[in-house]
Specification:
Radius of gyration: 19 Å
Oligomer: single chain
Order of helices and strands: HHHEHEHEHEHEHHHHEHEHEHEHEH
Largest sheet: 5 strands, parallel
CATH topology of the largest domain: Rossmann fold
Keywords: Hydrolase, Repeat
Number of strands: 10
Domain SIS: 33-173, 197-337
EC number: 3.5.-.-
Shape: globular
Strand order of the largest sheet: 2-1-3-4-5
Protein name: SIS domain-containing protein
Structural class: alpha/beta
Enzyme class: hydrolase
Number of helices: 16
Length: 347
């Protein structure tokens, strides 16, 4: 593994400050966001890529804590089929780190034309998503140079946690303010467990990344990062879906990476999955899940000391670090994965 520091590693380390600045920007606007959302009944998330994984977290928060039905949009309904739907009573939340992905802008405008109220979550205050939304929630990640999204992703999650508070979720904003410090502690932790997992993944062609509930978003994003920067055939799955058949692909050559908060209703199922994978002779590695998950895994990395509703903001950080280490271990540049750019345009 080369010793050259990557831009990605630097941007991973910048996340506590980026989250702190995003909270300073957005928490004072809770009333404004709540006023816009008050007449709505459900939430439609419009996103692609890493932003789509962030939207999965937002959807779980909206449903489990704010009692709002939430769903992910299918942008082609708007952009390819041009179907008109009745979206009155809908809060359409467009997520785009650049704010310039044409498909997301077009779908957000389509939602407005169909009667939805619109919120744009973006890292660029001058972008079309910010300018055209009824309300813009601008994250404060600063410039992100490495192609794999790190600090723009975690600041999106932070914005979605603020949105959940504005939607009436009976959660503690004080806990949200503790997130930057919790991630600082994660980043200051020992590097040996991450290095050991990265070493074991060198030479592996595929992996399964799994979590459930609020942590499902982390599983999806971790798998995407491993695909983007390490060219690993990584599948992000809910452990419920994994148990319905794809678990057959987990074997001695295809390890499982399991993610979980240290508490919550899905932790016991994640531990049981780790035990089942291990009993089948497959390597199993954990991120988070406390002592229970660590005890069922071959190797494990601690997660953030945060409540379940906020854990995904921290859980992704070790997965980002693992991706960066593995990419360098494989001789790849984690900052510039082949075939990718910062803004992806689709139609």
């Amino acid at each position: 593994m080369t010793s050259r520091p990557s831009v990605m590693s630097r941007e991973i380390a910048e996340q506590p400050a980026a989250i702190h600045d995003t909270l300073a920007e957005l928490l004072p606007r809770l009333t404004e966001i709540a006023d816009l959302a008050r007449p709505t009944r459900q939430v439609l998330f419009i996103a692609r890529g890493s932003s789509d994984n962030a939207a999965v977290y937002g959807g779980y928060l909206a449903q489990t804590h704010a009692a709002r039905l939430a769903t992910l949009a299918s942008p082609s309904v708007a952009t390819a089929y041009g179907t008109r739907l009745d979206l009155s009573g809908v809060l359409a939340v467009a997520l785009s780190q650049s704010g310039r992905t044409e498909e997301i802008v077009e779908t957000m405008n389509w939602a407005a034309e169909c009667g939805a109220r619109t919120v744009g979550i973006t890292n660029d205050a001058d972008s079309p998503v910010a300018r055209l939304a009824d309300l813009a929630m601008v994250t404060r990640a600063g410039d992100e140079v490495a192609v794999p999204a790190t600090k723009t992703y975690t600041t999106q999650l932070t914005a979605l946690a603020v949105l959940a508070l504005a939607l009436g979720a009976p959660l503690d904003a004080g806990e949200l303010r503790e997130v930057p410090a919790a991630i600082e502690r994660l980043l200051a932790g020992p590097s040996e467990p991450l290095d050991a997992i990265a070493d074991r993944l060198v030479g592996v062609q595929g992996a399964v990344v799994s979590g459930r509930g609020l942590a499902f978003s982390t599983a999806l994003e971790a798998a995407l990062k491993l695909k983007e920067a390490c060219y690993l055939h990584a599948m992000g799955l809910s452990y419920a879906d994994l148990l319905h058949g794809p678990i057959a692909v987990v074997d001695a050559d295809t390890p499982a990476l399991l993610v979980a908060a240290d508490s919550g209703p899905t932790l016991s199922g994640t531990v049981a999955l780790a035990e089942r994978v291990s009993a089948a002779g497959a390597p199993v590695y954990g991120i988070g899940g406390g002592a229970a998950l660590a005890g069922a895994c071959d190797l494990a990395v601690p997660g953030p000391d945060l409540p379940e509703w906020l854990a995904p903001i921290g859980l992704i950080v070790p997965a980002q670090q693992l991706t960066e280490r593995l990419a360098r271990g494989l001789g790849y540049d984690p900052d510039r994965p082949r075939g990718l750019g910062k803004v992806t345009q689709t139609s």
